[in-house]
Amino acid sequence: MKIIACIKQVPDSEAKVRAEGGQISWGDAPLVINPFDEYAVEGALQQKEATGGTVTALCIGPESAKEALKHALAMGVDDAILVSDPALSNIDSVGAARILAAAIQKIGGVEMAVFGRQTLDNGSGLTPAQTARVLGWPMLGLAGQIKVDDGSASSPQGVQVERVIEEGRQIVKAKLPVVVSVVQSIGEPRYPSFMGIRKASKAEIPVWSLSDLGASVPAPLVTRTELMNPPSRESSVEIITGESPTEIAEKLADKILAEKVL
């Protein structure tokens, strides 16, 4: 089975967001693999171990996104591909879905594409379903467990997932190929091994441009408006002291009355 783990590089979760020139800025926050996508890699590796085959990590981003792909390689994926083009710097989720679908079709023979439930930077959670729509594949979302059956001559190979939803658990089945988004119930992401880290450090990650995919720049469906930082708010604190709790309470009551709080 050929499996694709779709990942993204995002700012660290401790980063503070601000507006600069009407655009979102993460400052100098370090960039890491999207935490939810670590679960996608884990889910893909579980299927490789259960059914055999290969796992390829796929990412859209700048040259720096190779570090996120190397993290996936260190976790155990077989190879990685970066789709990078200056024209893709401001694509929305629909545009990302079209580019990911084009890359998956170029790879060929893919039977399962695995995503995390959402990304840390925009958190829409729409890209998996949009990618499935472009590919024309079934979409199985919020999977906490994945099981691929062997198939037979009369019944094509399929996949069953246990969806983790607010109402409880839901079993859903579909025929391969399929797009799956996973949640944390899939299992804690494995730590990169020492050998995996060495392999990742030496890996040559191919970079595909839009021309390599035979694709054009997807037109954005959402118009972004200018962003502004929230207005600053000044506050001051006064510490009321006294010889006894009674004296402090009296001073506090006088202060409240003087400030017309009551």
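the 2nd protein, sequnce then structure:
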Amino acid sequence: MLSALCVMLIVVSVGAQPVPTPRTPSPASKVTQTIGISTVTVSYSRPAVKGREVWGKLVPYGWNKQAFGLGNEAPWRAGANENTLITFSHPGKFAGQPVPAGTYGLFFVINQDDTGEVMLSNDIKSWGSFFYDAKNDLLRSKIQVRSNNHTELLTYDFINLTKNGGELVLNWEKKQFPVAIEFAVDDIVMANAAAELKGATGFTAQGFNSAANYALANKTNLETALTWVDQAIQINPTFNSKNTKSQILVLLGKNAEGEKVLTDAIAVANENELNLYGYQLLNQKNFDKGIQMLTLNTQRFPKSANAWDSLGEGYALKGDKDNAIKSFKKSLTMNPPANVKANSEKYLKQFGVL
């Protein structure tokens, strides 16, 4: 039987770690930005200005010789407490230089003339920059610090986002530290798609068709996309997959073959697919072809109020008022659903018929 003293010693030993409490005065934070299918995450602590003189005082200009640690000249930790960390899910570019996927320490230098530097370090476990060692640098690049509106709590953000990149910015006091970030999004998406299609996704037509559609929309890797859409058609020969193949063939300069595949696609299209394709053509201002598809839909599905309502919209967009009125009236004779009825009546009121 354990004595009371033994029990007490065990309890003290097991409970030696302190309980979690809020970190003050520089709370921890994290911000993540998705670019394409890649992510960039910054983990940092947020000091406040609190009326202090920041630049040249709290954060020294240039490289600062540390009072302890390695006693070396070091950059600013770009936050407070532990190293500020930045994580890239995929290889990319940081400040114009290549960076592999992974996690790195993030450091800055600011000079009195607002020139500066940014560093990524392979050292991710140090506290601040007291143990900074240049030999661990992955990269170093010049930056230009900007003037900015007052930011009380140090904040990282992502701005000026595009398809392939943007700027990571550190905002504090009245300064902004910008760094360009870029990913080869199309290459990353295509490589990821190829990998995904070797797994469970590769047993579905939707997987192959979605990958092919991305390549089509972004006009990239079209020969690969053609292979993928052929596999989608082999699994399930739908209008969508055949329409995708048709458009890829046209982009590859194979117009006659593309037109033949489109004809085959239209032949197997259901009501909704043909309706959506008609609207797609209307949105492209190809009114005659769009009306042709919507007319075909009313011929295949003559009792569909929605098909006649859509045809009415096609004529209305073209400016053919008489045929639009006929189509909307036809739709209203078929006891249409409430949304279809409301749309037909809206147009007829605009034409002064109701």
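The longest strand covers residues 165-182. Residues 23-183 form one domain.
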